Each structure stands twice: as structure tokens, then as C-alpha cells.
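Table S2 (text version). Query chain:
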Amino acid sequence: MNFAQEIKSNTLILRISGDLIGEDSGTRLVETVNEAVSHKVMTCIIDISELRYINSSGIGVLITILTKFRNKGGEVYLMKPSENVKKLLVITKLNAIFHMVQTEEEALQHAKK
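Corresponding C-alpha cell output:
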């Protein structure tokens, strides 16, 4: 898995590609989130359009990120999940917990409410 990060309008934007299967990359992702949250970033958009595969450890990473933001009064948005990832989120009922959006603008609009 690879990921890129940027902070825009007090929003952490993570772009994940490859396979999210926990391991070292999951730890680096959580460390990135910890740093953003410590700097009072309240919104996170995770672009998962290039995510090929996610396993239970990867789901755990996403839930950890969600928990860290919500504990601080923030929110996490999953952007453009592929059909395979979307099916997994429905099967695990995580689609009811995460906000799904198609664009950055859509997530930012929700965040302002």
C-alpha cells in the first residue's frame, strides 16, 4: 500500500492505493492521523478509489482513524470506493458508520454542516 497526504482547509486528505492489509503501512497511516488530530485537524477525507483490496486488518485501520477523529468531534469521509471495496463495506455494515462521498467538494460540504 502507498498513501499520500495533504492538509487543505483544515482537512486531512489521504489518498490510498494498492492493498490495505494492516502491516507497517497501517501503522504509518495511523501515525499520520495522530499528528493531524494533534494539530486540531477535524476532518479527514480518505480517497480509496485506487484501493484494490482491504482485509480485516485494513478495516481495523479505517475504524481506528474514524475513532480518533470522532473522539475529537471530527469526521471521516471515504471517497470513491471501488465496487469491490463498496461491497465489503456493505457486507460488514461499515457503510452505515462511514460517510461515503464521490468528491472532495461533497465531503467538505458535509463537514461544514
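Notes on Table S2: The mean pLDDT is 92. The longest helix spans residues 23-38.
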